[in-house]
Design goal:
Radius of gyration: 21 Å
Order of helices and strands: HEEHHHHHEEEEEEEHEEHHHH
Strand content: 15-25%
Largest sheet: 4 strands, antiparallel
Oligomer: single chain
Helix content: 40-55%
Number of strands: 11
Number of helices: 11
Distance between the termini: 34 Å
Shape: globular
């Protein structure tokens, strides 16, 4: 990564921050920012303004190449200052992670058909991997995948159920992970790119979840005899688990970036409240119980910044960064939860009300401790690595 790239990242981030504070934050009270995520009408309205400002999909300037991961961090933290910012700027999950993976793996034809409209912010996408626990399907353990894709002449026939599929309602692009037979007796998976909606895919219900920032919410859906040909395969057949790792390590980190931005905003609001609000004869911040909480926030915000920047630097070398992203995801998600929780506590009744975005930020960050791998799964993976490293022959 060049110095020029980082300088460009700082410049874009400064423009994004100004745009979010001046244009997007006023939308936070808009009734169209509903419980299952902002409506498509609101998303389009905000994106039109981002497009006019030259800031739509700002981490892919010119619609071609991504800036570095370190520069992306600066941009996404600025976008995250409002829960609506990442959606307005087209840097929200799952689209951001899907765009990254398609940029790495998709064919030229697939990039023209699927990726270009995503970068342009005119369509949304969904990543169909997680499955219902009741079906014994894949969650944190992708090898448990139950959805199947079976060869039938010149086509593949896909059947299964998926769960917690973010943004499926209203998406135009679908990436489906399905179990396929590579002929070697091992569990293999293939990714398929499809246009949505499709009559073979039925949304059974949209779940009511603790978070509310992602358009389309999180759905349980059924795939019933979906027929596709080889042109729908993303990359090579039976390489789905490999491509998932291409997507998941950077996506874990971009979640950290966006929600760090949100927690910085929550800390701003809580700090201002603690300075202005008086109790027992003095401002709240002059009570050590409150002042120390804000000091702890400041320390953990800086620690999160440094952890993200370290992991981004590793990814910028071109390695997968699986271990590093697991470490960052655990550290940052747990820190951000503590930060958001302190902000709610400092603000008391106001903190649990909808009068500020602090309560929503708290809810979103609580969900983040599960999304893209629960803390415990990442720790288990890291423990396995420690054991392998010790037992490795000299």
């Amino acid at each position: 990564m060049s110095i020029n790239d980082l300088e460009r990242g700082r410049d874009i981030a400064a423009r994004v921050e100004a745009f979010v504070r001046e244009t997007i934050i006023p939308y936070e009270k808009d009734p169209r920012a509903e419980s299952h995520g902002p409506t498509d009408e609101l998303v389009e309205e905000m994106r039109d303004k981002a497009r006019a400002a030259g800031l739509l999909t700002p981490h892919i300037p010119g619609g071609t190449d991504h800036v570095s991961h370190r520069s992306t961090s600066l941009i996404l933290q600025a976008a995250g200052l409002s829960p609506l910012g990442p959606v307005a700027l087209n840097v929200m999950a799952p689209d951001e992670g899907n765009m990254y993976m398609l940029g790495q793996v998709a064919s030229d034809g697939q990039k023209n058909h699927f990726l270009k409209p995503m970068i342009a912010g005119t369509v949304r996408s969904a990543f169909f991997m997680t499955e219902p626990a009741a079906d014994g399907g894949a969650g944190a353990d992708p090898s448990m995948i139950q959805t199947t894709a079976v060869r039938d002449g010149n086509h593949w026939v896909i059947n299964g159920r998926k769960a917690f599929i973010t943004g499926a309602v209203g998406a135009s692009v679908g990436i489906i992970m399905a179990k396929t037979d590579a002929g070697d007796g091992k569990v293999a998976a293939t990714m398929f790119l499809i246009d949505l909606p499709n009559p073979a895919i039925t949304v059974e219900r949209v779940l009511d979840t603790i978070d509310s920032s992602m358009p389309g919410g999180h759905s349980i859906l059924k795939i019933d005899n979906l027929r596709v040909d080889d042109s729908a395969i993303l990359g090579e057949p039976h390489h789905g688990f490999k491509y998932a790792q291409v997507r998941l390590a950077p996506a874990r980190l971009t979640h950290c970036m966006r929600w760090l931005g949100s927690c910085k905003r929550a800390h701003e609001i809580a700090s201002a409240y603690a300075v202005k609000r008086h109790a027992f004869g003095k401002p709240l911040i002059d009570h050590e119980g409150v002042g120390f909480m804000l000091a702890d926030n400041l320390i953990e915000i800086k620690q999160a910044e440094l952890m993200i920047d370290w992991c981004a630097s590793v990814l910028d070398t071109g390695v997968l960064g699986t271990t590093e992203s697991s470490m960052a995801k655990v550290s940052v998600s747990e820190s951000l939860f503590r930060i958001a929780d302190r902000c709610v506590q400092i603000m008391g009744g106001t903190g649990v009300s909808g009068d500020t975005p602090v309560e929503q930020i708290f809810r979103e960050v609580r969900a983040f401790r599960i999304y893209d791998g629960p803390t415990e799964v990442h720790k288990w993976s890291l423990a396995k690595k420690i054991k392998r490293d010790i037992l490795k022959p000299a």
